[in-house]
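Many introductory courses stop at the sequence. We go one step further.
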Amino acid sequence: MVGEKPVDQTFFDPTDSCFSAILPTTWDALGARKWIEGVSPLEQYRLTGEGWLGAMKFTDQLDSFMKEAGKIIATMKSYVKGRTKAMLVSVEELAERSGISAGLVFNLIESRVLERRYGKCGASWYGSSGRMVFIPRDFGIEPLDLDKLFKEDAEIRLRELESEIDATKEELSFTKDELSRFQCPYCGAPLSYTAPIELDERTSDTVEAFECGYTIGAGSEQPCPSDPRFPKLEDYDFKFKGFDTKWGTEWVCYPVPKTDMARRIHLMNQAGRTQEEAKQNVIRWYEQHAKPWKRRL
């Protein structure tokens, strides 16, 4: 049923006749193993990345898939080959360049097959949208290869460490104004991480993320909840689509951004037994992520 579609877009109704031989306890066991996850309140399930990997293995499809997936892996490796920085690439671009469907590219990333099956450094998702891929500079390298790489790179790393020590000494003498660059400019939340991103062969940038959710870099910005420009609910149109189930029509609410700032927040689609319930679920998700950051005591 999944075929070449991404696992997060294929749902299974346990009451369908094709699943009549599966006991309720089996669904529970698969959920406990984190091979499936419930889609509430639809009372349906979908495969997780780990579950998709297990299904491919038990149906003897994994080895043949990995031969085809070699095109995706080679494409991702080409982005960081001979470079010192990571890369940020969309699923669609990887699919186009490798000639593999976007659904299979998504499932390869979601299942973390390189790490789980082959013990190599794999790619991961960047941000909450699940459609931008972070390719580390050591992508596809095995642990033994890493040991060799570290030894060959020892002198360079030693010089970098000496530079970091000098930089740390300077930072210790920073004034309050100078230290502010390590805090969100809107709420003062501390910097969580920074990561170098290579946008293309000639352009690179640094992504900075703060505890409040404010993220900037790589040509995009996710606003802080305390930013006066943070989108309001009225900055979204709410679209609905009904799905017929055994229990009647289930509704999914799709928030459609109307402004540039609204497009910078990935407001998740939500389901409900009525249009109003689905809309309220979207509103609750929005309110949770729109709460201003507060310093922990």
